[in-house]
Fold this protein.
Amino acid sequence: MAHTLPALPYAFSALEPHIDALTMEIHSQRHHKAYVDNLNKALESAPDHAGKDIVSLLRDIKSVPEGIRQAVINNGGGHHNHALFWEIMAPNAGGEPTGAVGDAIKAAFGDFAKFKDTFKQNALTQFGSGWSWLVWDPAKTAVAAIKLPNQNSPLMDGLVPLLGVDVWEHAYYLKYQNKRADYVDAWWNVVNWKKVEELLANAKK
Ligand code: MN
């Protein structure tokens, strides 16, 4: 079954003024769509892998034929990263996480402010395109902050992505131009901690 572009769970304008409507529309309808289309195209030559769900495909990336592996990393990673990105943002969101996520962040970083700092530094020091991530590390049974280039998915390293900020220029250039730090600062206002809580609970299962 072909991979499909998910509909946003809110209007393009829902994250204003932090993320503008035009950026949301172009980002989801053109950038994300291109990842989905190119993933399906790449998988045409690998029917054994075409039926796999996106998480299994990325977790088991080494089993993907070498000829299309990089295309699956780029476009499959792009598809999954963006599908997650739309879900971990919401209008009337932000603030500080409580519950299991708040506890896991405190255990790993000391407090929320230190986590925010580390996560932002990762976002700002990712040279060129990529993502800053909060992940669940099953081996350490703890959360961790990492950065990854391009559309590389944490799933390929055995990690479970819980929260990620897209720092490709297409994610912020229309409104923030070169000011990536301002974009990241504003982005905290749209973080959907309820969804992150759900993802952490699933990751621990
Ligand atoms: Mn993007």
Notes: The beta strands are 130-137, 142-149, 160-166.
